[in-house]
Amino acid sequence: MRILLTGGAGYIGSHTAAVLAERGHEPVILDNFANAERDVPARLARLTGREIAVIEADIRDTEQVTAALRTQPVEAVIHFAALKAVGESEADPLRYYDMNIAGTIRLMQAMQAVGVGRIVFSSSATVYGQPESSPILEDAPTRVENIYGRTKLVMEDLIRDLARTGKLAGAANLRYFNPVGAHPSAMIGETPRGVPNNLMPYVTQVATGERAHLNVFGNDYPTRDGTGERDYIHVMDLAEAHALAVEHIAAHDVSVTVNLGTGRGTTVLELVRAFETTTGRKIPLVFAPRRPGDVASYYANPALAERLFGWRARRDVEDMCRDSWRWQASRAGINDV
Ligand SMILES: NC(=O)c1ccc[n+]([C@@H]2O[C@H](COP(=O)([O-])OP(=O)(O)OC[C@H]3O[C@@H](n4cnc5c(N)ncnc54)[C@H](O)[C@@H]3O)[C@@H](O)[C@H]2O)c1
What we know:
The chain has helices at 11-22, 40-48, 62-71, 86-91, 93-114, 147-164, 199-208, 235-252, 268-279, 303-309, 317-331; strands spanning 2-6, 26-31, 53-56, 76-79, 118-124, 170-176, 178-180, 214-217, 229-230, 232-234, 255-260, 266-267, 285-288. Helix 6 links the parallel strand 5 and strand 6. It is an alpha/beta fold. The strands form 4 sheets. The chain has a 7-stranded parallel sheet with strand order 3-2-1-4-5-6-11, sandwiched between helices. Strands 7-10 form a two-stranded parallel sheet. It folds into 2 domains: 2-181 and 232-260, Rossmann fold (3-Layer(aba) Sandwich), CATH 3.40.50.720; 199-230 and 264-298 and 315-331, UDP-galactose 4-epimerase, domain 1, CATH 3.90.25.10. Helix content is 41%, strand content 17%. It contains 11 helices and 13 strands. The structure holds nicotinamide-adenine-dinucleotide. The site of nicotinamide-adenine-dinucleotide has 27 residues, from helix 1, helix 5 and strand 5. Nicotinamide-adenine-dinucleotide binds next to helix 1, helix 5 and strand 5.
């Protein structure tokens, strides 16, 4: 299939482009490069041995996206493009509503104009808010705890409504748990701007010496070692799930909402220890108070993804640490990896 990847030059999009190309699909990247490096398509071409078409556009520009889809027809869209920082969404709500919600509406208008009726959408486990218990199933109650989370829920509803009313033939809302890791080649990976919001990029930056220590927020949670527990998922497993999801909706013309996680929780201290063991780098820790809004523990029940797509995460925490480190070390010019 020819598949449009909005935000395809970003972290998860670029790994999905690589996996799609490996599986014989033809990814077409649409990105405005607001949060991606310009040479990602060239790196992908080296990695996959194939030229990958790139459309530089903003998803909110329906006219440009429609015109691009007329010259580069696709059978499905995987929609990654969004703003994703919780704190920023609370500081600038209109920007988030505009980019994420208005952007998705404009994109879908372009898709309708050219008759593309299949979409895979990047949702997030953040839609569960503070879950009552884990493992979390897809029918657990959703709760909005910040504006970023609200934009994900609104976009999911929008997509389900269009599928229900026959405007979309196939749709998959994929709720990611905590994506980490990088392509094992270290040719693509995550490049957060400024201070990383997420644990793994922070850990790798401590390991390179860019940051002095890791702040561990809260060591009095009701978990095995008192630190927060999350369901980390290797970005290559996540990318493979996208390929299977788009193949599934194309084959069956269905609308589905599916968790993508490993089903296993890892605490902050367990992740740090695995990182130290795998990489031989020491991560100095400073314990700090809990952050408001942080949840003690959550992890997925990923059984539905296995039942529908035949997918399950294959990579473990050591793989995640090793590949994250290879990527970050190569960026920092460290060669003893
Ligand atoms: N990384 C995570 O931890 C995580 C977790 C859950 C869900 N998600 C969702 O997955 C998706 C991808 O996340 P990511 O981590 O790869 O983020 P990313 O920022 O690396 O990728 C997003 C890409 O979209 C592009 N983009 C942003 N706005 C655009 C616009 N208006 N028009 C065209 N391109 C635009 C950016 O330049 C970037 O390349 C997002 O929707 C995010 O909300 C991410």
